[in-house]
Amino acid sequence: MNEQPAQTPSRENPRFGRKVFFLDPPMTLNKSIIEPLRDDEYEIYVVEDYKILKAILMENQDAMVFINIDHTLTFKQWFNYIFSFKDNPTLATIYVGIVSERATSSDQSLFLENLPLPCGFQIVGTTTYAVLLDNFRKIFELNGAKGNRKYIRLDCKNTKVVSACFVQENKLFEVFIQNISSVGFACTFDEKSAKYFKENAVFNNISFTFGRNTIVCPSVVFRIMDNTAVFLFTPAMPLSYKEAIRRFVQSVLIKTFELKLRNYSMDFTKYRDEIDMGAVAMAKDARNAQINFDGDSDFGNLESVEEI
Question: Most buried in the list 66, 129, 144, 277, measured by CB within 10 Å?
Answer without folding.
Answer: 66
